[in-house]
User: What shape does this take?
Amino acid sequence: MPKTIFQKIIDREIPAKIVHEDEHCIAFHDVQPEAPVHVLVVPKKLIARVGEATTQDEATLGHLLLTAGNIARELNLDAGFRLVINNGPHGGESVPHLHVHLLGGRQLTWPSG
Ligand code: AMP
Assistant: This one.
């Protein structure tokens, strides 16, 4: 299976503005930001989407959320932020490598489109 674009970022084959990296995940700025802060938090393990995660991925999934919260604090998103995971075609997923969108820096509306 060809590498996803996020795997290429993890492997340093293409550049990204990385804001965090640890043993289990990497986080970098989205190239097409939908808000003043738009960071993607991506597990190093290739899980295609949350709907295909298993109980073996429980710690990884928890780590992604905790990391997103820590990055939000580091980026001073004190007024609030939103975490989004798109899953499959109806969810608007475009990269088949699980990622959490961290959005903030402006008033976000709800419901999303
Ligand atoms: P999704 O539509 O939920 O699968 O989100 C994929 C996100 O990845 C989109 O917001 C894209 O703008 C973003 N994206 C695609 N390629 C790159 C890249 N090379 N570096 C950073 N973000 C990217």
Q: What stands out?
A: The mean pLDDT is 97. Residues 5-104 form a domain with the HIT family, subunit A fold (CATH 3.30.428.10).
